[in-house]
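Lab notebook, bench 4. The sequencing result for the construct came back, and we need a structural model before the next group meeting so we can plan mutations. Quick request posted to the team channel:

Model the 3D structure of this chain.
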Amino acid sequence: GYTVTGVVRDAETRQPLADAKVSLGLPEQSLHDRTTRSGGDGSYRLEDLPYAPGSRLNLTCEKLGYVSGYV
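Done. Here's the predicted structure in token form:
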């Protein structure tokens, strides 16, 4: 499988955000979202993901007090 990693940051201050909910979905495969939380340094890691070339990925980040965003 594949791995997706990254860092959740405040859009204005660029400071890392701890304990943000990070979800990844693969809509073409009807895969249930995989979810994790960012660590103290804002980092997250989603492992063992199935992926077919050309598939579309929906990555969503949520944290209380912030507007949810997706990539």
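The chain is about 0% helix and 45% strand.
Will bring this to the meeting.
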